[in-house]
Amino acid sequence: MDLVFSDIHADINALDTILDVASSKEFTKKYGEFSRVINLGDILERGTHPSEVIARLRSLEKNYPLVSVIGNHDEAFLYNRLVSGSTFESKDAHAKLNDEDLSFFKKNKDGTFGKQEFVDKKHGLFCVHGGPLDPKKIMPKNALEDDAWLYQRTWQRLTEEDFEFFSYYGYHYKAQSAFSEVKLHLENNIILCGHQHLEAAITEDDGKIHEIYSTLKPVKERISGHTLESREIKTSPSSNYLIRLGLGGPEGYYGNGSTVPRFAILQYDPNKVVLFSVNP
Fold this sequence. Notes:
The chain is of the alpha/beta class.
């Protein structure tokens, strides 16, 4: 079973809450024990405990395989680019990060940091922070240098319109484009992403797109001193899925998302994705 979260945004309290709940006896008795952790990016900025979050992720690496893709806020901090939403307190906390802290973000041969995507062919997973589109296919040849990074997978976002477009919030893609791109890598797939702080679930069956999040029945239960609200998606090998996680760290709330921690688990026998929110 995989434990998945996104957009922790330097919120150590939220990360610890997610880990405490997911590793509690009550939770593991019902849902099983997680054997891998997938971080969908944006562990930095907006929140006030970046070094503590990095340290906690490093401690997880000692006991579990930890897969991380990089988020747009991670990139913004590492490349010294301006993104809105961080307070003076947050900026001060991030200014204290040292080289050892930042070595968590592996440096690539071309000088960039981190992974833009993680592909798990065994389980049919395509994990990204924002979207799976190949930036080279969507970026105009005359794109300005300052705009180029907004086409990257870290900045892509699911469009709320019936068309695709570019804005200074990134490239807005349609679900069909996401499925078409990922089919080049995986025949049947589950696309996992975050970035927009709001949960979403979309399926593709025989080329037809269906929004299913609104049909998922929320179930409330009391586990480990918290009220959990869950939504279960039973996945079929004949369908493709785009599942977007909600905001993991409420310190990253900037007028978008929920003010409680959110995470997900992926079960493989039987195949399910369960989305959770953690309420006091």
